[in-house]
Design a protein that fits this description.
The protein has about 210 residues and is mostly beta strands. The protein is built from 1 helix and 15 strands, in the order E-E-E-E-E-E-E-E-E-H-E-E-E-E-E-E. The chain has a 15-stranded mixed sheet with strand order 8-7-6-5-4-3-2-1-15-14-13-12-11-10-9, covered by helices on one side. This is Glycolipid-binding domain-containing protein.
């Protein structure tokens, strides 16, 4: 069960946004990721709880941030309920999308599991519902993903395969690179892996 800490920062001006303390593990039904978010000063800022089925689809999502809460799952596309900090108003949403997205590294791992690309796969388009900070506002986005390289690196615990993805935002054309090993993001815009107490879990090859 990988357990560790990411530091989060603004990908444009590198302003520190806080840290994400996480643990994750594959299970009999898929994969689960749980984390706690803190501000740069160390105060609690929210949480992430994401569970995927064996095909990489989100079977449960629960987000908390700034008093807001989102609960969602893959149902007729993706469906969610967003509740305000006072618990007075709850709004439901549904979009014909493949999965969810957000600032947590969990969503990058989840999308890679859903697509299961190989270096020979064509560039693949995916529609996601992203919950944006700090109030978890939903926004539908379209991306394309391509697995550019998959390389094994020698470690004390045996070979570690690192996948390099090129992710493009289809509305702006902006491209960035994401490096993932198993169920851990090694590097991505706005994300740095600061510590990892145990090796990433490995998934079956597609």
């Amino acid at each position: 069960m990988p357990r560790g800490r990411y530091s989060l920062h603004d990908p444009h001006d590198h302003t520190p946004l806080g840290e994400e303390h996480f643990h994750c593990a594959p299970g009999p039904s898929g994969w689960r990721y749980v984390s706690q978010l803190t501000t740069p000063s160390g105060d609690h800022a929210g949480s992430v709880d994401l569970a995927l089925d064996e095909l990489g689809r989100p079977i449960r999502l629960e987000l908390h941030a700034a008093g807001w809460q989102v609960r969602g799952a893959a149902l007729d596309g993706v469906t969610w309920v967003r509740t305000d900090p006072f618990g007075v108003h709850a709004t439901e949403g549904n979009v014909r999308a493949h999965a969810f997205a957000g600032s947590s590294p969990a969503f990058l791992v989840a999308t890679s599991r859903l697509l299961r690309l190989t270096p020979q796969s064509p560039t693949t388009r995916v529609r996601l519902v992203a919950f944006t900070d700090p109030v978890l506002a939903p926004r539908t986005i379209d991306q394309s993903w391509a697995l550019m390289n998959s390389e094994a690196h020698a470690t004390d615990n045996g070979p570690l395969t690192v996948d390099e993805y090129q992710v493009s935002a289809l509305d702006t054309g902006e491209q960035h690179t994401v490096h993932i090993a198993g169920d851990v993001v090694l590097a991505a815009p706005g994300i740095e892996l600061e510590s990892l107490e145990s090796p990433p879990s490995t998934f079956p090859t597609p």
